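pasting for the record
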Amino acid sequence: MGRSKLKVLHVGIIGTVLALIIVAVAFFAFIKPTQATIEEKKGELSGLQQKAQALGNNQTALVKARLDSAQAKSDLAQYESKYMRVGPTRQVLDFQGANGRVTAMLALWREQAETLGPVLERYMNRAGVKLLSPIAVPAAPTDPNVINPSEIKLDFPGIQVMGTWGNIMAFLRSMETFPRLVLINNVTLSGSSPLVTAAIDLSVIILPRNGDKAQIVPSVTSDQTGMGGGVGAPGSYGPTPMGPTPGGGPGVSNGAAVPSNGAAAPSNGATGAPG
């Protein structure tokens, strides 16, 4: 009986040792390498996730950059439209190049002779005010070298209009949407309700492009201006304030465009009288 019990005990111990050996062999042969592989794959997964996140961030940044670029282009177009574009063709007033000053001067001629007066009248009509005196557009420059390339200021003193208080306020508020930068310098009211008269002093500001690159013109010839017979400035715009002239269109006494037939443009800068 003692020997049998001993044998059974020995067998149990041997079995237990063998089981431990088998577990150890399985751990080092299979389980531990598998765990290492799992950790390695977790590292790869983390790296892929970081790359995916970075790619998503880059794509988001790219979309934002494109939106920012589109917004910047839109802002630039609006800025150019309000502060730089002049004349009936809405060209950008640009001083770049050897003939930049001459080109700018010709653009200002058309702006001052053909555009500013009618546009101001249009805004008055929309607001319901009546123009009582001609719009005296400042005389256009005849020397390109005297033009300020960084800021062009055109003063319109004493524009007289009549209307109700609401009409006059509507006109003043409409200057915020005027297609030029407008400064209201002074407003004087007279008369009694319902119709009052307003004398308005305002200035139109034009901010040219490439003003820092403007070059002095050594001499101005007819070839440079494209006008034979010398250089002359167009006259001021002087519309008839109270309606059209008899037998014709609106009374514009001296608001003709820059001539293209080889003759010099008028240079007296006179303001048209009421029709």
